[in-house]
Design a protein that fits this description.
Blueprint lengths: L1 H16 L13 E7 L6 H15 L3 E7 L4 H15 L9 E3 L5 E3 L1 H6 L1 H4 L7 E2 L5 E2 L14 E4 L2 E4 L6 H9 L3 H5 L5 E2 L5 E3 L2 E4 L2 E5 L2 E5 L6 E3 L32 H25 L1
Parallel strand pairs: 1-2
Antiparallel strand pairs: 1-3, 2-7, 3-4, 5-6, 7-8, 8-13, 9-12, 10-11, 11-14, 12-13
Helix pairs in contact: 1-8
């Protein structure tokens, strides 16, 4: 009977102390990232496919607001300048540049790719505005966001217009199964179009219009990049960092332990508890 109680106690403490290595999906409160990139940026050609097609599968609760600043320089000129000024360390500018909040961001190919480790510990956040303010996702009006952007999530991309139900758009972004979500949303089926990213194009198998917003998605879990083309950087714009060895380090917090170390700590804690219980039993 005593050992039954001891076993129950160990099981309870194991559940309490079990390590939480990854950020688990929150259906109504996503993790929001603002991503500045440029078509023609060689470093962005390496980060775009990873962010749009790999991260969206590994972290299904992230939303990526993608602001392209070379092809859409005029549309995003003021916005990019404010984002660099507000969130970039030492006021430096360059792409790729990704932002979680005013304390956590990354610039440069290597730093942005390493940012994935930060996402494993990220929790739902507010939308980081270019001026440093934040807006909760539930209060965010997608139709009124400034600049030219796309929103990537899961197996889909939303290409903005200015006239669609804000709630319908959010439902489409957060829904696990987009086709089920669209059954209750007024939409018009259209032919899918390729979406330019740095270094290539993203292809989709389905598309609908919701208001004047274009929604595109694939049946497969991941999205494929095809028709790789040679793209030339637009002149007279913010230049990306071309030296992969020179990385602008940002204030991404260094985690004290990775997943493996946390598991070891957890096992040691359980063994310590068992040892203590055996010691107490022996004394009695």
């Amino acid at each position: 009977m005593k050992w039954l109680k001891i076993s129950s106690l160990v099981l309870f403490l194991s559940l309490v102390l079990a390590p939480k290595t990854f950020a688990y999906p929150d259906v109504d409160r996503p993790i929001i990232l603002v991503y500045l990139s440029g078509i023609g940026c060689h470093n962005c050609a390496q980060t775009d496919p990873v962010i749009f097609f790999e991260w969206t599968q590994k972290f299904p609760n992230i939303l990526i607001f993608d602001y392209e600043i070379f092809k859409h320089e005029l549309d995003n000129f003021i916005l990019k300048r404010e984002y660099f000024k507000t969130y970039s360390p030492d006021g430096k500018s360059g792409v790729p540049f990704i932002i979680l909040n005013n304390k956590i961001s990354a610039m440069g190919r290597v730093s942005v790719l390493e940012f994935e480790s930060t996402l494993k510990f990220a929790t739902p956040n507010s939308f980081p505005m270019s001026n440093g303010a934040t807006t909760e996702f539930k209060d965010l009006d997608l139709n009124k966001l400034e600049g030219k952007f796309n929103i990537w999530s899961k197996n889909r991309v939303l290409i903005p217009g200015h006239n669609a139900s804000n709630e319908d758009l959010k439902t489409i972004l957060l829904a696990g199964n987009i086709e089920d979500a669209l059954k209750n949303i007024k939409n018009k089926k259209v032919d899918p179009i390729s979406v330019d990213i740095s270094g290539g194009e993203a292809q989709f198998t389905h598309a609908v219009m919701v208001g004047d917003w274009r929604v595109q998605w694939n049946d497969m879990e991941g999205q494929a990049v095809s028709k790789i083309k040679v793209l030339t950087p637009t002149p007279n714009v913010t230049k990306p960092s071309t030296n992969s060895k020179v990385i602008v380090k940002t204030n991404i917090p260094k985690h004290k332990s990775n997943g493996n170390i946390r598991i070891i700590e957890y096992v040691l804690a359980v063994l310590l508890i068992i040892s203590a219980l055996l010691f107490i039993k022996k004394k009695r």
